Known about the structure:
Layout lengths: L8 E7 L3 H12 L4 E5 L5 H5 L2 H18 L11 H11 L12 H10 L2 E4 L2 E5 L2 E4 L2 E11 L3 E3 L15 H6 L6 E5 L3 H12 L3 E6 L10 H13 L3 E4 L3 E6 L6 E5 L4 E4 L1 E4 L3 E3 L37 E3 L10 H20 L5 H4 L10 E3 L4 E6 L2 H6 L4 E7 L4 H6 L5 E8 L4 E9 L6 H9 L4 H4 L11 H10 L2
Parallel strand pairs: 1-2, 1-6, 2-3, 6-16, 8-9, 8-14, 9-10
Antiparallel strand pairs: 4-5, 5-6, 7-15, 11-12, 12-13, 17-18, 18-21, 19-20, 20-21
Helix pairs in contact: 1-9, 3-4, 3-7
Amino acid sequence: MPEEELPQEFDVIVVGAGPVGENAADRAHKAGLTVAIIEKHLVGGECSFYACSPSKALLRPIHATRASQRVQGSEGAHVDPQGVLARRDSWINRVGTSDTLDDSGQVGWLDHVGITLLRGAARLVGERTVEVGGRTLRARQAVVLATGTMAAVPPIPGLREANAWTNREATTSRRIPDRLAVLGGGVVACELAQVFAAIGSKVTIVERADGLLGRHEAFAGKAVAEALERDGVDVLLGTKAESVSRLGPTGEVTVELSGGKTLKADELLVAVGRTPATKGLGVEEVGGRLDRSGYVSVTDQMEVEGVSGDKPWLYAVGDVNGRALLTHMGKYQARAVGDLIGARVAGREPDAGKTTPWAVALGSPQVVFTDPEVAAAGLTEEEARAAGIRIRVVDLPMDSAAGAGLQAEGYQGQARIVVDEDNGVLVGATFVGQDTADLVHAATVAIVGKVPLTTLWHAVPSYPTMSEIWLRLLEEYGL
């Protein structure tokens, strides 16, 4: 129905219609509540159109080609740059030859399940009250914030004026620049550097730290750096961008680097992290707290701290609360909050096992979809030691598993487990190598379930698969 005919009150209002907001809305709706969801851009959010989906759609043909090239008898595959871009376009629902992105599929899902969509920028203006597009809506029970994050742009002189790419422009570009400079050394920087190097760009990474993927084990960043360099990427570590200039709106970009060096490129990608989308949201105006970085401060049940009322009514889930900047962890929080709201409205005592997303504190599982892949769960060695855990670290080359040699000739990679010696359980695991992404869920189950290593030893891996690395790690540990 037209927006002017929509009701003014709903049980729950969700702000942000990315995957996290969709999950919160869906869970609340399944609890029998009326739900409105507000989105100022595209239903499906950053993940569907500018991040997870397009970047992995771009990377998969590269992975498949290289995997084929590493197996005797199927070495003839090659990367088709235009085919890679066309595959990406199909995943982000690009309309014909235009730059328009179509979210009608996601909108259709909302209609089908009975969740009301409103378009526009939302702002909290009072208890359970949200303003959007000149209309004032009231939530009878709860408001859930799921606005996510935006690409951070550091205060480097000339950077904003240079019309640099963020992940949005990079993952949707139809143009392959001859020279691409990348500021940053995290997941986005490494994945997109590898994409553009594979489809024809000369890529240079500029990273101020001494290694890539700084939140992972050091050996993971080193392996990815070596792979990028084999791909022809120049990896400049311990290097800062001092200033940026550009000839006209789309001309050559010049980056002045520390040490007196100069880098010239046709495009510049800024991938130095994220910043919360809380500006203009009205969180502080209703008593909510933001931390020093602007993320919404929440309790372990995702209730926004500092908000007054006769009962909890404002929640924040996903990237916007800063606890785990990963889509799957945000969706996990959203499911818990949807169930929590449903239980509270029904007058039931919430089941803490379902309504508190406590696993976030154990270390989020994550895959970096570079070649080699980095698949990790739980704590790194450094994080575990900082937490005061008495640990033992076990390292093995991935080719210790018979399945690795069948997966690729001359398989290269490394595995690590971090063991809590006092409790005999895993607190961290990292796998680096081709096709390691599917190993990480077993690690997640072991860590979240606190499975004793003596029990894990009885989880016999199928032979000859990559999963045999689990047996080899346990044997190396001494079981």
